[in-house]
Amino acid sequence: MTRWFLLSSMLAACGGAPPPPAPSSVAPPSTLPLVTLNGTKIEMTSAVAYEDLGKIHLRVSSAKLDCASALTTGVADVAGRTEFEVWLQPRLRPDGSFGWAIGDDEFGSAEHGFTGPALSADLRVDVAPGHHSRIPVTAVGTRKIVSGEETRTLVMWGDADAMGCGVRRPPEAAQASNRDGTITIGAKRFPITQAKFARTPTGLELVLATGEVMCGSHDRFAMASSIAPLVVTLRFDDDGPRPTRAHLGGRWLHDVFDDTRHAHDDAHAPAISERPRAGAKELEVSLSGASSSTSEDKLTYAYSLTGRVVAQVCPDQLSP
């Protein structure tokens, strides 16, 4: 069965278009990116692409790659062989549409929390076994590879003609909505699936997520941002219904977003209908208001909160 990834169709659950017709399995003229390692040109031999948990993994090597090893083993880190992976993932734009972006990359045993620029909105990746796709890797640019005391510089540019290897693990199943609470960005509404209250050293926090978020240590919400597609964190410093800070994050967005501070008299800022009382295990609250955050790549995302959610009240986390 063909696995054809046009991003808007992969996210059909969020209102995307139906998938386009399957492409031909005839390979385009072979091409591989130009790569240098510490200034020395490396002749790349093959490239493969596969899906894993909704991300597209592009592996390029100076040795011949096969699908069986790509799906079961990590990137090779052996003498005389240069090999790396680039991971493509969905990127949400301020208007609510989606495109592809370079998420992380892996070189030998070194894995990087690198988030690159968005790629073409029309990028199509076909990971069906034997099918081919042309994927740009120029955006990855220059990478510093640190292994022990050695630092290596990998530079890549151009396109990769990648052969499809299928699916390693399918995407996680969509979670049920939490009442009718939503986060709206641009023209797209995203159902909130989980909500958590917690008292932390900096005050009360309410986390609203379109994926999993767990009670735990004080850094749990940073972890939730990397897991859930979208996460809004509201921070309350006093007993009022409006937060003094609102933070937008998630794996659909570019890296870390800045906090937006709200004045107490800002009638349009996010607000909740009530706060949890002592001993409460959960609380149903109404959401209202709007805010905005600016990403590290200088894009401003305006968003609004509406509807109701049932929020679990986590145990207090009052130690820094």
Commentary on this structure:
By secondary structure, the protein is mostly beta strands. It has two domains: 4-169, no CATH class; 182-313, no CATH class. Helices cover 6% and strands 45% of the residues. It has three helices and 24 strands. It has helices spanning 7-10, 67-72, 220-227; strands at residues 4-6, 34-37, 40-42, 46-52, 55-61, 83-92, 98-107, 110-112, 124-126, 132-136, 142-147, 150-157, 159-169, 182-185, 188-191, 194-200, 203-209, 231-236, 245-249, 259-261, 271-272, 282-288, 290-294, 300-313. Strands 14, 15, 16, 17, 18, 19, 20, 21, 22, 23 and 24 form an eleven-stranded mixed β-sheet that branches. It has a seven-stranded mixed β-sheet with strand order 8-7-6-5-4-13-10. 38% of the residues are buried.
What would you say about this model in short?
By secondary structure, this protein is mainly β. Helices cover 6% and strands 45% of the residues.
Name some characteristics of this structure.
single chain; about 325 residues; mainly beta; 2 domains; 11-stranded mixed sheet; 7-stranded mixed sheet; about 5% helix
SSE diagram, text form:
Blueprint: E1 4-6, H1 7-10, E2 34-37, E3 40-42, E4 46-52, E5 55-61, H2 67-72, E6 83-92, E7 98-107, E8 110-112, E9 124-126, E10 132-136, E11 142-147, E12 150-157, E13 159-169, E14 182-185, E15 188-191, E16 194-200, E17 203-209, H3 220-227, E18 231-236, E19 245-249, E20 259-261, E21 271-272, E22 282-288, E23 290-294, E24 300-313
Parallel strand pairs: 4-13, 16-24
Antiparallel strand pairs: 1-9, 2-3, 2-12, 4-5, 5-6, 6-7, 7-8, 10-13, 11-12, 14-15, 14-24, 16-17, 17-18, 18-19, 19-20, 21-22, 22-24, 23-24
